[in-house]
């Protein structure tokens, strides 16, 4: 999850402190990471959360909600100084836990109680009683760990698709051949697992690859970063980055320190 300030507010590093950690062992295979974000005390306005192909369970202002998979940047307006906590599902695992078709969650934030009913009450109460954000995240993971034994972990085929698309360009036909399924079946499985088809997932993960390269790219220019990420040319890079993030590539690279 990359949080980016809207207009001139900057990336999450300048709007607070964001950290990730591995999930506790009972949640491995179900979740990628646990994370926390302390919004800066002087922050004001919306922050853009750019698409990453993932789904999160999020704690904010005393409530738990599901942040569904995005196609364009989400623009929440967290209060200054807010403590936001979350668990990010492993690719393809969210559908088993949430019990709703992933396309219904695309671009949405849904109260976890609307999906799980009374099961959320005890977890919310325990988290609310915690004295610190660290203790609250411990309670969050412990509560979800009680449910993990009854949940299927991420589907291996969709974990493969996500990983392969994250690492570099590959045709959808080649992915289907590797899994020994038709392109139509791959699209159906992708919709079930991620909320959108493999072409959209490919766009999002190429964008995320560009962001990773920009963080580590030193003095590399935009054209070099774009080609390394898999964009056809600089115009292609500009269109895609603007569509997914609402920002220009140059501005993103500048904020990332590239």
Outline the structure in words:
By secondary structure, the chain is of the alpha+beta class. It folds into two domains: 3-148, no CATH class; 156-256, Arc Repressor Mutant, subunit A. It contains eleven helices and eight strands. The strands form two sheets. A six-stranded antiparallel beta sheet has the order 2-3-7-5-6-8. Strands 1-4 form a two-stranded antiparallel ribbon. Strand 5 (56-60) and strand 6 (63-67) form a beta hairpin. Helix 5 packs across helix 8. The longest helix has 19 residues, at 198-216. It is globular and about 50 Å long. The two termini are 18 Å apart. Residues 2-14 have low confidence and may be disordered.
User: Strand tally, please?
Assistant: 8
Shape: globular
Number of domains: 2
Measured by DSSP, the beta-strand proportion falls in 15-25%
Cα(first) to Cα(last) distance is 18 Å
SSE order? EEEEEEEHEHHHHHHHHHH
Major sheet details: 6 strands, antiparallel
Query: Low-confidence stretches at least 5 residues in length (pLDDT < 50)?
Result: 2-14
Total of DSSP H or I helical runs spanning 4+ residues: 11
Task: Give me the secondary-structure category.
Answer: alpha+beta
Strand order of the largest sheet: 2-3-7-5-6-8
């Amino acid at each position: 999850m990359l949080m980016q300030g809207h207009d001139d507010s900057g990336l999450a590093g300048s709007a607070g402190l964001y950290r990730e950690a591995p999930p506790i062992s009972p949640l491995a295979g179900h979740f990628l990471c646990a994370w926390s974000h302390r919004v800066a005390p002087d922050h004001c306005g919306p922050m853009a959360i750019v698409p990453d192909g993932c789904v999160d369970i999020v704690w904010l202002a005393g409530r738990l909600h599901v942040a569904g998979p995005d196609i364009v940047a989400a623009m929440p307006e967290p209060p200054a100084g807010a403590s936001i906590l979350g668990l990010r599902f492993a690719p393809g695992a969210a559908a088993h836990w949430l019990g709703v078709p992933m396309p219904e969650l695309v671009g949405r934030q849904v109260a976890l109680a609307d999906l799980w009913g009374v099961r959320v009450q005890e977890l919310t109460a325990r988290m609310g009683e915690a004295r610190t954000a660290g203790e609250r995240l411990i309670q969050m993971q412990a509560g979800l760990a009680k449910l993990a034994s009854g949940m299927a972990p991420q589907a291996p085929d969709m974990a493969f698709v996500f990983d392969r698309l994250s690492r570099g360009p590959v045709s959808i036909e080649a992915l289907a051949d590797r899994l020994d399924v038709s392109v139509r079946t791959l699209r159906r499985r992708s919709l079930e697992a991620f909320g959108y088809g493999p072409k959209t997932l490919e766009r999002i993960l190429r964008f995320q690859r560009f962001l990773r390269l920009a963080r580590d790219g030193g003095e590399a220019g935009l054209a070099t970063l774009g080609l390394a990420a898999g964009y056809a040319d600089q115009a292609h890079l500009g269109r895609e980055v603007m569509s997914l993030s609402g920002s220009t590539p140059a501005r993103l690279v500048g904020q990332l320190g590239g």
